[in-house]
Amino acid sequence: MxxxxxxxxxxxxxxxxxxxxFGTAEQSKTESSxxxxxxxxxxxxxxxxxxxxxxxKLPGVIDVVSGYAGGQVKxxxxxxxxxxxxxxxxxxxxxxDPEKVTYEQVLDQFFRHIDPTDDKGSFVDRGPQYxxxxxxxxxxxxxIATQFMADIEKLGVFNKPLxxxxxxxxxxxxxxxxxxxxxxxxxxxxxxxxxxxxxxSYLDDIFGSDRKSNPVTLxxxxxxxxxxxxxxxxxxxxxxxxxxxxxxxxxxxxxxxxTERAFKNxxxxxxxxxxxxxxITGEPLFSSTDKYRSGTGWPSFTKPINDAFVVxxxxxxxxxxxxxxxxxxxxxxLGHVFKDGPEPTGLRYCMNSAAMRFIAxxxxxxxxxxxxxxxxxx
Length: 378
What we know:
single chain; about 375 residues; alpha+beta; 6-stranded mixed sheet; 6-stranded antiparallel sheet; 13 helices; 17 strands; about 20% strand; disordered N terminus; Met_Sox_Rdtase_MsrA_dom; oxidoreductase; Peptide methionine sulfoxide reductase MsrA; Mss4-like_sf
């Protein structure tokens, strides 16, 4: 069947415009190692029988294997590592699908099942070969782990300073076959060891005895703490009120997950100093200090003002999955975040102007956002 080129030109034009906002096809392949490319995390949290068991329970994790990392001895044996003389640490390598679970979520599961404050061992297992560590595979993993550990430290849930090492990954040696899936192959001995080790009693003390039936992530705790310290509440009006107060475009974008036109929106080229808040609730979202000209025709930022006010979720409305960004309390559709932004985050929060209201630096005090004046005094 033959087609006239003139009939296809409108389609090509539409694709060119849309890829600026949604990311190109090539970007979608490399954005977060998607389309069949999984990611790997290498983590040390004491006995690898236990950490392997705990990480395999996380949805989105494809496989977990036990092994050794951190030392100079090639292909070490368990006997050599357990002697504490090889500089190796017992670790697990976690293979996960970044479309289903993020690296931070893997770390969240990891930290909620270890003692990250003990650098002399892990529960009954003593010695440097059992100390906690994260071996990062990329600068992005290093950055995520650094920020997440800083957030955990500020949260104070472990009651002691973190002693978890953050080290560049160099090599991984697979442990002997009998160590793999030990909790499945030797369930009775494993349960006895785990109970006797004190791991679960420690975790119950930290996270509560209902931590398995009613799990709360560290990220949820961090966000809740941030909201409590903020001291403000944000309430979403009824749909009837929204239809009366929002413009047609604002309603379309925030309530119907719409997208405004590139270069034809209010803030794409706004260079004034100030912050951007949710147009409905007033939740603080982004700052001009993190805004940059992405060339897409939409306002773009490297990070939110406070992660507690934004929620991300996978969006399957296009051919390939994207990460949608919404406000926490207003549940407004804001835009999407892509991994093709500049340093220091490498992220591009590509937002709709219609979903936000701009408050100039000079008006922050009058509008009740005086705490953000510090962003412009640094």
